[in-house]
């Protein structure tokens, strides 16, 4: 993929998420391009495995219903840990992680869309999350120091990157020795039809045409230095993925997965 095409993808994704960040009401937005996806963010997140309590303790407007799983539920976060969220959006997962790491811990959210950063910072102020900060940057070039993070989480974002090997090299760089990845994202179960794969505009920014095959993703993680790599697909994700592109049977090609790895 040429640098020009990579930049085009980033611009398309940034433009779409800018529009979402600026919407007064986020009902009807999800990790999809379909207007048929009309559940509220709360309803969407309930399907993704978030509890009623989790949905009730975050600032209003932080849950945009854009994920495909619940990464902080699988991250086994401990008090005092430093957590990094790749593609933090309105801050939803960061605020949940903040409660788990406590006052002695810290949460850093990175997002490449200025409007999302502004939204997340306003939400943090509104909710009094003093141990949480948001930094503007691309996940391929993290504004985070070497070996400074215990856990990296992410929710349906890495598939949006046109340079996934660089994302995981950066993730490896910023993790401490013994640090870990706990990511929810979409993966390919089968080769996408050409008309879907080549739609760099709508379907890439909608978490569909940027998904990687499981074997390829595992190889990228291991080449980046990660050990104990596991990628576990969630069959129940078919129920909500089918709404991302109604009628296209997209659920036959992609699934949500739990992706884990350790920096030895």
Describe the secondary-structure layout.
Blueprint: H1 3-22, H2 41-47, H3 52-56, H4 71-74, E1 82-86, H5 92-101, E2 106-111, H6 114-127, E3 132-136, E4 149-155, H7 164-174, E5 175-188, H8 194-197, H9 202-205, E6 212-213, H10 214-223, E7 227-233, H11 238-241, E8 254-262
Helix pairs in contact: 1-6, 7-10
Characterize the structure shown.
- With 264 residues, the chain is of the alpha/beta class.
- The protein has one domain (3-262): Vaccinia Virus protein VP39 (Rossmann fold).
- Helices cover 35% and strands 21% of the residues.
- It is built from 11 helices and 8 strands.
- The chain has helices spanning 3-22, 41-47, 52-56, 71-74, 92-101, 114-127, 164-174, 194-197, 202-205, 214-223, 238-241; strands at residues 82-86, 106-111, 132-136, 149-155, 175-188, 212-213, 227-233, 254-262.
- Strands 1, 2, 3, 4, 5, 6, 7 and 8 form an 8-stranded mixed beta sheet that branches.
- Helix 7 (164-174) crosses helix 10 (214-223).
- 48% of the residues are buried.
What letter string, H or E per element, gives the SSE order? HHHHEHEHEEHEHHEHEHE
What would you call the structural class?
alpha/beta
What's the shape?
A: globular
Give the strand tally: 8
